[in-house]
Amino acid sequence: MRRIKKLKINHEYEFELDLAPLLAVMVKLVPVLLLSSAFVQMMTIETQLPQVVQQAIEKQEKDQKATQITLEVKDKEGVKIIVKESGKPETVEVVPKASNGTYDFALLQERLREVKKHHPEIFKIDLSPDASVSYKDIVRVMDEARRSRDNKVRFPVFDKTTNKETQTDYMFPEVTFANTMEG
Amino acid sequence: MRRRFELPKQKSTFGLNITSMTDMFTILLVFLLQTYSTSTVELIPEAGLRLPQSSSNTNPVESIKLVVSKEVVKIDKTKIASMKNADFEAKDIDPNDTNFILPLFNELDKLAKDEKLKNDPAVKEGRILLQADSGLPYSVLRKVMYTASMAGFPQLKLVTLVGE
């Protein structure tokens, strides 16, 4: 009787993977990526706004009687929030500086959220900083005004294309330097 | 008779172990992919210039690049004016208008009237990418904004670093 030859499988067999082509690809990729790398990421402050918000801003620009909100960044007092509503007296609220002499940005954000809740149709504000206020603080004020940091707080905005009300976290994304032309 | 000493026979070629090198390249590749820039505009930060940090996340668009540091004012790489004590020098300011920076206006006006740049959208729409030092007072920025808008560049985009 013919004996069946037993097939031997060597489970201990080891082989070395040829990594040379992979390395060749990597060597080519590294200089390409090195050239196109940005080690310092820079952005611009003027943002591309969602279309719904953009439409609301355009509407506000056309409406001469729209509520006017001004932020006066004072060197000593803090930030003054002035709301001018047509047919109503002007309201002024001051966000004082913190005890360490810096601006209280958390409180400012809170106050701005309150203003936005009362005027959800307003997206544009005027900014009037004092001459001695640093650029860093101005950028920070703009940051606080742009969006709500509280994820639970959203503001209603009417979408013309769908005829429905949607929610946005944008508060006052459009900032105009009101005192640029002053002497 | 004395036997002649012979070296054991060796292969003339040898396989280089590149596993560790591949590991290193993989880590390097991941790091470089993370820092890969998708922006079309190349912004080179000026030496000694400290940009403010902002939560804004919009990539810069092609515009005239204006740098205002504590020492110098530049358009692209050309020096326009010098700064002294974080302010413009008296000779660069118009005596009749304290907000008007003469060399900046002249340079921007030259760009606005340049025939070669006539169809450039940055010049056409009057866009400026302003890289200003975070420590500068608003009075300096106001002068820059005022002069730029006078020269026909009203769209000022403030360059900031990514962060909170």
Brief rundown of the structure:
The complex is a heterodimer of chains A (183) and B (164). Chain A is of the alpha/beta class and 183 residues long.
Commentary on this structure:
The complex is a heterodimer of chains A (183) and B (164). By secondary structure, chain A is an alpha/beta fold. Chain A has a domain at 73-177. Helices cover 30% and strands 23% of the residues of chain A. Chain A contains four helices and eight strands; from the N terminus they run H-E-H-E-E-E-H-E-H-E-E-E. Chain A has helices at residues 20-35, 51-62, 105-118, 135-146, and strands at 42-44, 68-73, 78-84, 91-96, 124-129, 155-159, 164-168, 174-177. Chain A is elongated. Chain B has a domain at 53-162: Nucleotidyltransferase, domain 5. In chain B, a hairpin with a 2-residue loop joins strand 4 and strand 5. The model of chain B has no long low-confidence stretch (mean pLDDT 84).
List keywords for this structure.
heterodimer; A: 183 residues; alpha/beta; two-stranded antiparallel ribbon; 30% helix; B: 164 residues; elongated
